[in-house]
Amino acid sequence: MSYSKKNHYVPRWYQKRFLSSESARLFYMNLDHLEKHGYSPPLVSIENCFIEKDLYTTFFLGSPNDEIERKLFGTIDHPGPQVLDALVSNDLDALHQYLERFFELLDAQKIRTPKGLAWIKNQYPQIENYDLLIEMQKLRTMHCTMWGECIREIVSAENSSVKFIITDHPVTVYNSACPRNSEYCKYPNDPSISLKGSQTIFPLGSNYCLILTNLEFGRDPQHCDRLSTRTNARHFGSSVIDIRKMIRGRSLNNEDVIKINYILKKSARRFIAAEKRKWLYQEPRDTQWASVGSILIPPKDKLSGFGGQIYLGYSDGGSAYFDEFGRTTKKREILKKPVNEVLEDHTQECPCGYGRAYLSCCKDRPIEYRPSWSEYSFRERNLMFLGAIKDILGLNRGKNWNDIRAELNDEHVRNIHGIYGDLFPPDTDFVSLLPKPDKNTFRMIYSGIIDPRVAPLNITNMLLYADEIFMISPFLNYHVVSKEFSPVINPSQYKENTIKNLLTFLSLHKHIQDGKVQIIPSPYDFNHSLQDQINEEAKNRQKNFKFDLKKSKIMTRLMEEDVLRSRFYLSEDKIKQDFLKFNPNFTESNLKELINEHRHRHQADPIALLQTNIGTQIIMSHLTPNLELGLFLAQIIGASIFTDNQYRWDEITSSYKNTDSSDIVQKNEILEIGFEDSVDSQPQAKWESFQDIRILLRESFWKKQEESLQDLNVVDQINKKLVDIQNLINLKFQSDSTIKKRPLKIAFSNGAHMLSIYRLLLIYGGNFYLKNMPMVMFLEEE
Fold it and tell me: Please, what sign has the CA dihedral across residues 123, 124, 127, 130?
């Protein structure tokens, strides 16, 4: 079977739009030859322009396959001329039919070029060409949502003698705050379209060019922070677009067109083309990158049609709401806080809200590298939540834990979950509230059993070895469940689950206050697309890795206890009947003794309600985050994964691909750490005394991030640090015989072990995250 060896990464139908006659030839310049003496771009047939052999070819059993060229891009390109004609002519009927296809075409054109493919490849530590082409297909519509919410303007070059040129990367992103020599523009990068100041340029032909501008920048380009992330930046999200909104009528002169061509040319990889040779050489009088893009700013008096709120009504009586940034709920003002940009006292708490002094937190970080200052942090919201819990349950009025167990009612459950959902509404910008990787902080993210009988104790003890530990909240957000299972609408079924979750939170209250334990909501609560993709990846992975409950003895024991606990809520008559079924010969004295023992156990169980006949309960066990979500979060915040679950440890380490850290694993895999049976066992003075150990762990973590484990010198350095850590731990605990020791295993990955994680980070992880997998730690089960 024949296949196409020539892959046009800029399609021929698009090239024809830059020709004013039937001629099918363009002056085709190789920018690498521009400085050569006497070089003149040749006139080349469009058949041979912007072409690369086997760019999209895949091979199966040695046979070439061109289905990506024919079936994928062939389908996308087919309506291309009609789509661009509809945009230029403002044919609303055609736009209604084709607008979604246009954004799909635009996104495909951005990533199908050699520069686009190189950009994708650059996001993955290791990727083969076949996998690269698979990833390209999975990413090819990632920008559509944010483009759809931009200010759209079509400018004209009809009155200019200079026309728009074509480049080998036609979808160009420009940000005046990102110089050409900056990391933002270092090949193959372009500034992210999620940055407020980023504008997308796409010539529609020789006479017309589309400019897409983020709403916040278009409204106030002078005062907008061009490197901060636009409001509700997201990929693969839903939105509503009014196809009638398009700025038209701005006619450019020669100098204006030359400025746009200059931006296009400087953002190209190697080749540019035009109908006339001289257009390829012309440059604006002012070539300053920060000012040349002023021509792209949309006219301020034409912006009234953009923004605002949209309400939709459906035939079944339902409705939907979208604000100008695609959010589906109105922003809660209570979650906003005033931003104080000038802090004279650098020792005061940092405005990011994560509990550290400004001097050691955000002081020396660029604004774009900080968590949000304008909204309450997860820590601040958790403190608000804890305050509300104490008010609702009366803990501020002298009530104790046994009172709560006895008095917890439906109204308590409803109010607690209602406040939790209000503090974490559906349109929470999850990533913007997370801290970024910090070389001065050693973080862990806990991936284990979220249960008051396990998590608070293990997390508290591991705090000696970490600056911060992050944990997923066990509370159910009522926004993401159906009415049938809502803890706000049907609270009675969540009483026992609520008491467990309350004890988890309250046990960690002091550490939350100190900023050492950060309880974060599940990102699934705010991003269903992320949840769907992670579930799909986990489903595919678990075909070869099945959950084995036998590998989690603690989880088995906890589940058994939960089943037995349900007997505490039976009536005395029912308990007697059950005992007599077990042994019909029990006397009244026997029964009385058994019932007293039963009551004693009921009273002694801290997560048992001191109530009877509580009805059917939904008991939720959380082994979270899963492998994919844990790795995703760890790389966003710059953390090691810490687990206390054998199954999770096996799952993570068995998923490692290209792991060459066997020397480390074999020699120094296991540390013996001190462990105390109290969640209040780590006073500040003791925590501070372990700073030297945390520094060594932090250095080992970042050494792994910066260097390859294939370098034997790096392996030796990390081995030495781990030996030093063990020696320090022994010194800390040698005089205290009451301290138990528990094995702590450490493993390092050398590169990527799942490509899907890097795709998730690229799509949902914001603009700053680790490019290498974190080290993983396992506190062995007792």
Answer: negative
DSSP label at 553? H
Tokens representing 89 are: 């002519």
What is the extent of the structural domain holding 502?
377-553+621-779
SS (H, E, C) 125-156: CCCCHHHHHHHHHHHCCCCHHHHHCCEEEEEE
* Interval 106-143: pLDDT, tens: 999 999 999 999 999 998 888 888 889 989 999 989 99
The model's pLDDT over 13-43, given as tens digits with 9 standing for 90+, comes to 999 999 987 778 999 999 998 878 778 899 9
One domain, residues 403 and 294? no
Could you tell me if 750 and 627 lie in one domain? yes
Does residue 470 belong to any structural domain of this protein?
yes
* Residue where a domain terminates, one of 259, 277, 305: 305
**How far apart are the C-alpha atoms of 741 and 731, rounded to whole Å?**
13
Q: Give the separation between CA 243 and CA 231, rounded to whole angstroms.
A: 21
171-215, pLDDT tens digit by residue?
999 999 999 999 999 999 999 999 999 999 999 999 999 999 999
Q: Is residue 679 part of a domain?
A: yes
What is the C-alpha separation between 235 and 245, in angstroms, rounded? 22
454 with 541, same domain: the answer is yes
- How sure is the predictor about 661, in pLDDT bands with cuts at 50, 70 and 90? very low
In the predicted structure, residue 773 carries a pLDDT above the cut 80: no
pTM for the complete prediction? 0.89
Residue 662: predicted pLDDT: 41
The alpha carbons of the chain give a radius of gyration, in whole angstroms, of 30
Domain shared by 299 and 382, yes or no: no
What is the reported pLDDT for 108?
A: 92
Q: What are phi and psi of 210, to 5 degrees?
A: -95, 135
Give the DSSP letter string of 391-429: HHHTGGGT--HHHHHHH--HHHHHHHHHHHHHHS-TT--
Structural domain ending residue among the three candidates 305, 338, 353? 305
Domain total of the chain: 2
The Cα 286–Cα 246 span in angstroms is 29
Confidence of residue 2 (pLDDT cuts 50, 70, 90): low
Shared domain check, 392 and 282? no
Give Cβ neighbours of residue 658 (< 8 Å, ≥ 6 apart).
126, 750, 751, 752, 753
Residue 343 lies in a domain: no
Q: Is residue 579 part of a domain?
A: no
